[in-house]
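Example 3.
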Amino acid sequence: MFWDFLYSSVHLFTNPTTFAIFIFGLLSGMLFGAIPGVNMLTLGAVILPFTAYLSASDAIMLFSVIYCAGVFGGAITSILFNIPGAPENAPTALDGYPMTQRGQAGKAVGAAVLCSSLGGLASALLMIAATPLIASWAVRSFGPPEVFSLIFFGLTVAASVGASNLWKGLLSVLSGLLLATVGSDPAGGLDRFSFGSYYLLAGIAFIPMVLGFFAISEVFVQGEKMVMGTRKAPKVNLDFPSFREFWGLKVAVVRSMMIGFFAGILPGIGAVLAAFMSYNEAVRWSKKPENFGKGELEGVVSAETANNAATGAAMIPLLALGLPGGALTAMMLGVFQIHGMEPGPLIFITSKELVWTTFAAMVFANIAIFGLGWLQTKTVVHLLRVPFHYLAPGILLLATIGAFALRNLVVDVWVMFAAGIAGYYLRRSGYSVSGIVLGLVLGDIGEAAFAKTMQLTNYSLTTLMHRPVCAVLLTIGTLTLLWNIYGAVKKSMVQAETVAK
Amino acid sequence: MWQEKRRLWLEVCVWLAIGISAYAITFQFDDPIQGYRWGATAWPRAIIMGLLAIAILQFVVAMRKTAVTKRPNAGEAAQAQRQTPEDKPVLKVALSFVLPLFYLLLLPRTGFYLTTPVFLLAYLFLLGERRWTRLIQVTAIIYAIMIIVFTTIFYVPLPVGYWPLFYDTNNWLLQVYR
């Protein structure tokens, strides 16, 4: 194992083509992740056809490096502009953006750099050490009932994050789940909510929705403030978090690494749920949970460590089982297909060089994120000095191109703008666009898992409780939900009594 | 207080409208599925019922809270009235929504390469930039970056329009840029 890694590392740095592709992936992933309005998924979609001219090993390596760098890069726009680069960066904005507004952008970005690097590195090393073992465990232990239970648990957690109150959080998640039902149902392929439209028959494309809910709605919100004269430009600050501050968060970092890694292993769920769950656990275990959402560094650290820890883990089901962990890993399946290959257990034997080149590239990409990320902290933060009325049209244009470039459909751009307008009104009313996106992303997988579960258990919900993982997740999820509802009703009654007095 | 109550009523009505109409539409695809007893409607209907229940619960809790709040006095009502936004900014806010939608409407017809610079100029002007030199400079910089990255380097096939003069002009510009 060590010699395979060493050989691949030497090949990475000594082969000019491979090294150039590595650097391109690193820089472009960070850049596209850091530019508001586009993200690593846009970059992946644009360069996918060009990978036919690369070797399979270089092509997969390129995408894996873009994945590591892009997830980190998405944190930059989350923190500076409240526009997450990808859904897994959404929880980062909850505390990162308030920190920017308080003039602590540098500290937030610096923390994101450190934690992304650490989380990704730990995940990459674990991935190298344990891919075959973990893959076989995941297949044996996690079937459709466990996947459904985890999604149920994750969504109950997400409902309490990002909205102005629990009711709006729950409504946001349920709205996302309802949007995910548009298209064909996973059990019988019946056409639902499509109204005769071929576009809707394939389901609502989630990337234009993500661009609309985050980038476009943010431009509308800030644009309104500028027109009304109420927008305050955030102060630029280049402080890096101190070692003491960072050491104080070591428990959160380790916890988030574990959550990110194990959530990342699960096919289809990956980094998005990892980031939300990690953020929620940080709130749950904090001595001052009321500080979250107002600029708490631990919120940024937890979300960013988890989503980068999920990157290495997401490669495990992809390489070992051929199951993508997210949108970018789903594109990587396309790369395999272009080269006439099929990921699965045999790939470790038939394409050993590809596997180890990818592993080595991810390790060094995460190390490079630390160095380049530190540099980016000192430079990208200056974007805040650019007047927003210069940035806003650029963001709009980038988002338009990003939505159009996916499938060359103007309809996708219309969907993006519709989501932008909806997102604008929802945010003003205190709803959580992150919750909607999470419901949209996990809805299909959750329903498919539920349908398979019902068929496996002969439509008996109680049978789920005989499976230990399901029992634990469903019980905790249900208790959390009921406890949160009880707490919200009680809080409202207490507030009403206080006002009455 | 009455404004708050009106907002709550509006909010619950919107959710009820969405929920009830979505539930009604589920009857269009409630055909049985072989091998899956619960069909295509079980999952969306469960979500809709959850949505309606939470929306009603939210409304009831919020109305209880509002009901025990004192009525605003005349001074507060007058202050609320004074805070009503003026017409001019509201028009500008509305335009900031309408302009991108208008751009999107024109995009497939007049093409990206001709329409985009005009949109950039108009949007910058709407957002408050009045210096003509700055307007032209920023428009040129943003446009140039988009063209270099997406047209020259990545060859992204952006719309060239289909209206007669625009189609030819956009294609000519595309050849020049590449």
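Residues 212 and 420 of chain A are 4 Å apart (CA to CA). The radius of gyration of chain A is 22 Å.
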